[in-house]
Amino acid sequence: MKKLNRVFAAFLAAALSVSLLCGCNGGRDSSSDAQQAVTQSAEAVNSNIEIPGYESVEFKAGKEKQSSRFYNPEGNSCFFRLSLVTGDETLWQSDYIAPGEKVGKLKLDHALEAGEYAAKLKYECFTLNDKTPLNGAEIELKINVR
Q1: Which of 39, 66, 84, 96 is the most buried (most CB within 10 A)?
Q2: Are 124 and 136 in contact (CB under 8 A)?
Q3: Whole-angstrom distance, CA of residue 135 vs CA of residue 11
Q4: Is residue 139's pLDDT more than 80?
Q5: Contact indicator for 109, 82 with CB cutoff of 8 Å
Q6: Domain boundaries, the chain
Q7: Per-residue b/e over 14-23, b at no fewer than 16 CB within 10 Å?
């Protein structure tokens, strides 16, 4: 839980920094595109995007199709796109996940052998209206394959 709080705090700090940096234009007139980006960043900070954390996931050895607990919390005001990564290899990437939606089943790029794997679950966040990229997060976890 402490790890999740640290990740969430870092995510909020990064989102606030981006929002503040986008708002400082050195006295030049801002274009409507720049203003829209600032507004969307501010909306993301104000909406307190909830990023679920996981210590581990359980997969079946030798199978590409797996069950998943991944989801986008109902109260979020953005889409998620998730990627499960080991080292430099992306094992799986989701489509856009709407608030309140669960992944349920997923298909890995290839089956894993039994064992324990260090991995990261990468969160990309996008606005609901036009899927403009927002900030993201990474959660370190273990993949337990049995």
Answers
A1: 84
A2: yes
A3: 8
A4: yes
A5: no
A6: 2-145
A7: ebeebbeebe
In terms of Cα–Cα distance, which of 138, 76, 71, 80 is closest to 105? 71
Indicate the helix (H) or strand (E) that contains 6: helix 2-23
How far from 110 is each of 57, 65, 89, 97, 137, CA to CA, in Å?
Answer: 16, 9, 11, 22, 24
**Which letter does DSSP use for residue 102 in this model?**
B
pTM of the model as a whole: 0.69
Classify domain 2-145 at the CATH topology level: Immunoglobulin-like (2.60.40)
What does the pLDDT look like over 66-96, one tens digit per residue?
999 999 999 999 999 999 999 999 999 999 9
Q: What is the pLDDT of residues 24-43, one digit of tens each?
A: 344 444 434 433 444 344 44
Rounded Cα–Cα distance for residues 65 and 51 (Å): 24
